[in-house]
Specification:
The complex is a heterodimer of chains A (90) and B (134).
Chain A: H1 2-43, H2 48-78, H3 81-89
Chain B: H1 2-39, H2 41-65, H3 72-100, H4 106-118, H5 124-133
Helix pairs in contact in B: 1-2, 1-4, 1-5, 2-3, 2-4
The chains are: A mainly alpha (90), B mainly alpha (134).
């Protein structure tokens, strides 16, 4: 019983770290890219339509790690494999 | 000249967005087939759910991101709105999948999700080709 509570508690901390650090990394990356986009658009405004597609694709790539992290966090929240090992052993 | 170039690149961005969705669907399909062979039908459905949640999110995001403007700030706000909508849709669809589908195989879902998310960047190759053609 105590082991279950410990696993649940540490899993909660892990979920928080996965989502929090993933979101922080994605936000830093998006901030740097958006600053570069604005700089490029200020230098050459005629390039905005061409940069638009690239920025969207790169936003998706930067966010990919965060989205995968969210999926992993949901897996640990709803179908925790560590918890099922302990309950199967008991 | 600038107007012509803008309209041409607008058409190209449509092509790029559709290419991105094609790549995502292809990657999801490959993972679904592998999951079906390795772990059975429940794993295949899980992989499909993971891949489709990312693809549906990317589809609605691309609809918002296609809005064109001459101002860089407006374009940037549209792109960030698109990304926010994409993340919200993906999280909601994943939550529904985890809650509703009881025979879910989590690792297959993560594999489908990761493949679809990472292969969205493969459309960059299409972007480079169309720019060379111009």
């Amino acid at each position: 019983m105590e082991a279950l509570a410990l696993i649940q508690a540490y899993t909660g901390v892990g979920i928080g770290l996965i989502i929090g650090l993933g979101a922080a990394g994605a936000c830093i990356g998006i901030g740097i890219m958006c600053a570069s986009f604005l700089e490029g658009a200020a230098r050459q405004p005629e390039m905005i339509p061409q940069l638009q597609g690239k920025v969207f694709l790169l936003l998706g790539l930067i966010d990919a790690s965060f989205i995968i992290g969210v999926g992993l966090a949901m897996m640990f929240a709803f179908a925790n494999p560590l918890l099922s090992v302990v309950t199967a052993a008991n | 000249m600038t107007e012509e170039r803008n309209s041409t690149s607008g058409l190209d961005s449509n092509k790029v967005f559709s290419k991105m969705l094609q790549w995502q669907l292809s990657a999801t399909l490959v993972v679904v087939i592998i999951a079906l062979i390795v772990s059975g039908s429940h794993a295949a459905i899980s992989a499909l759910a993971g891949g489709l949640s990312v693809t549906v999110g990317a589809y609605f995001a691309s609809k918002i991101a296609q809005r064109s403007s001459k101002e860089a700030a407006t374009v940037l706000v549209n792109l960030l709105k698109a990304e926010a909508v994409k993340i919200v849709i993906i999280v909601v669809l994943l939550f529904i999948t985890f809650k509703v589908y009881k025979q879910l195989v989590p690792f297959a879902l993560i594999a489908g999700l990761a493949a679809a998310a990472l292969f969205s960047g493969a459309a960059m190759s299409k972007l480079d080709k169309t720019e060379l053609e111009i």
